[in-house]
Fold asparagine synthase (glutamine-hydrolyzing).
Amino acid sequence: MCGITGFILRAGVEPAPGTLERMIERLGHRGPDDSGLYREGAVGLAQSRLSIIGLETGHQPLLEPADGLALVANGEVYNYRELNAALGAAGRVMRTGSDSETILHAYAVHGLDALERLRGMYAFALHDRRRERLILARDRLGIKPLFYARLPDRVVFASELKALLALLPESPRVSAPALRQFLHHQFAAGEDTLIEGVRRVPPGEALVIDPELNLTHHRYWSARRVAPRDIGPEYASYELGERLDAAMREHMRADVPFGLFLSGGVDSAVLAALLHRHGAGRIHSFSVGYRGTRMADELDAAERVAAHFGFEHHRLELELDQVFGRIPHSIWAADELMRDYACLPTSILAEQASAELKVVFSGEGGDEIFGGYGRYRPPRLERWGKGLLRPGSGGFRTRGQWAGRWQRALYGPALATVEPPDRAPFVAAWQATPGDWSDLQRRQYTDLVTALPDNLLVKTDRMLMGFGVEGRVPFLDHRLVEFGLALPDTLKTRDGSGKWLLKRWAEPLLPPGHLSAPKRGFHVPVGDWLGGERAARVGELLARNDGIRTWFRPEALPALVAARRAGRGGGRELFGLLQFAIWHRLFIERPGLTPAPHEDPLDWIASD
């Protein structure tokens, strides 16, 4: 797990001295173990390394001079052993123990077709000197991030936005459509980011960049290729077990110890069972809850699972000020604005885990691929009504997070008139699905290409990498994703609940009664923190923030605060404004500023 960055220049252009060094310095938290630079003609590559596989020999950039190739990579190629055997038979000689070297040799043999052979989570940049091209590629599900910007004289790329900000020809500017999407849906989806001109490399794609800076998109995988299957529960259970075991065997490949984030829910409990089944031994597991709040947690359930499998369990019970002291650092770590409150405890878990480990397993993806969310099985009348009111996505992802009255009161002129519509990414995803898919499959797919890579996996990657920890998500092995998406609806949802097949398969492996407990999710008691005098103080400070004054109507803030204090809504809106104000200071006003892991968020709202 690492940070990568670099550029390709137009002919005749020279970078300012120290450009690569400044870029990779911004990514040091992703790779504290090592760093390396490469410069050949118009191309510069850099990597900061977190050593997981091939500890002593995996220094990057990796070079293959005979083929004119250079590589920097982030992530893991889990099937590197199998690929190396085939590549060795084809005459390739492996010089390191690193899984990233497999990418280099696979490309040398297969070209861009090598991408279809890789299994894992990765983002990489590969310079092919002979063909005069730079390739930027990202894994199928978007587990690992990769951003780029096409400037008049160069294309620059990086694992995080932070490394690109200093290279933009002008001060960073906010993208109004992306800001609207964040406010409405708690994240911005698609290729455009919150920084105007900076884009994401799409999951399952490679960008090929030539010396004239022309970009060609090469799509090597899409979940739309999955065909529905007619399969019964017995064979489906057998096949599920085979695929889970295959994914876990590969995901457990590491030259360092690993642990598990154990929430007490279904997905992390299944991972616990699989880790135990595959001989992980007495690994460290971590769970989190809160003191001084009315919100229930799953600490006891997580502890029972850990005891059942003999793990060394760490139970964290947090004070509210501990949790919300993470706000500035979590916003800095995330790069992209997202109102997923679970970023806060995840950040604390990552810091705790980093004292013991470099690798942690996590259960992201289980709901998306096995149909776990309640939003995947709405009543027919609700689905029909929502689809009628907001057409285009079958009644799915229709309602924004902000109440209409606060949009009208708080949005400034530039924000109120933005096009395209806020729901455009969800409508586009829904409309792209095959005609023989069910409503449930379309809902799964829409989340797989929007909320999963642009929200949930942002939390998993950036919160952990903020403390130099690699997150592994076995449910997002693409073979499992294809299997889950293809299943008949009846093997996903029954009797008003989801993940029927996964629960059926896992029940004999888990503590008795574990699967009968109600799903609570990874909640954060925001309402217990953002109220009373604190809400009033937040409102005062927001009025002194440059981003708020530019994009919103500060004169409407007192009414929002009053509603929040009186218990008449406004919580999501006030928290979203707080996040944007701090993000604006860190990424627009003062790029390069880094909060400590624990700070009073009120100190970071008002502009200097």
Notes: Residues 530-604 form one domain. The chain has a mean pLDDT of 93. The longest helix spans residues 233-251.
